[in-house]
TrEMBL record:
<feature type="region of interest" description="Disordered">
    <location>
        <begin position="216"/>
        <end position="238"/>
    </location>
</feature>
<feature type="domain" description="Piwi">
    <location>
        <begin position="1"/>
        <end position="214"/>
    </location>
</feature>
<dbReference type="GO" id="GO:0003676">
    <property type="term" value="F:nucleic acid binding"/>
</dbReference>
<dbReference type="InterPro" id="IPR012337">
    <property type="entry name" value="RNaseH-like_sf"/>
</dbReference>
<dbReference type="Pfam" id="PF02171">
    <property type="entry name" value="Piwi"/>
</dbReference>
<dbReference type="InterPro" id="IPR036397">
    <property type="entry name" value="RNaseH_sf"/>
</dbReference>
<dbReference type="InterPro" id="IPR003165">
    <property type="entry name" value="Piwi"/>
</dbReference>
<protein>
    <recommendedName>
        <fullName>Piwi domain-containing protein</fullName>
    </recommendedName>
</protein>
Amino acid sequence: MDWPEVTKYHGIVSAQTHRVEIIQDLYKQTKDPQKGLVEGGMVRELLLAFFKSTRQKPSRIILYRAGVSEGQFSQVLLYEMDAIRKACCSLQEGYMPRVTFVVVQKRHHTRLFPTDRNKTDRSGNILPGTVVDTSICHPTEFDFYLNSHAGIQGTSKPTRYHVLIDENGFTADILQVLTNSLCYTYARCTKSVSIVPPAYYAHLAARRARYYIGDEMSDSGSTGGGRKPKDKVGRSPA
């Protein structure tokens, strides 16, 4: 991996219905009276941006996806993987890069504590880079907890990474090292952060986009009382 280049990102945002966890605009087709069938979508635009920058197509795609609950894993994987495949094939027939789909979860109640007081940071938390992938993890699926940051105050909260599909065939150690290493490349901080930067940047892009679309598309309003659900900005795939 070219580490100087891995810090470059291309942001895309798209609005969709409030409380919909599946990203709707990863790939889409529209009919134009003059051009006929027009292909588009966020993944297609990202692939084109990558090709424009590097003059080559990616041979593998590693997707860090935030904002998905466990009950939606299968639906998100089925829909979004299909959209990614269609977007790739729309660029070139037979183009099928290997995909690793990782869900990033921060909303959980799991905490990790050191068993040896000599192996803690100054705040008494576990050291940055600590990984747990046994005992408290899923017995058959590929997931792990990573504490990639140094706690400043209180107890550090690790991030859970759940691999839904891994066509690249990464070992647990390789994917864990990759994820932890990426946490040191966040541009706004001189130290490692708690969430892998692709997911972090996607969150920032979505929040920034809300200032441009106005209150009429804000997700802060109530959807009860029979009112039409408002829209929100979907996070771009990282």
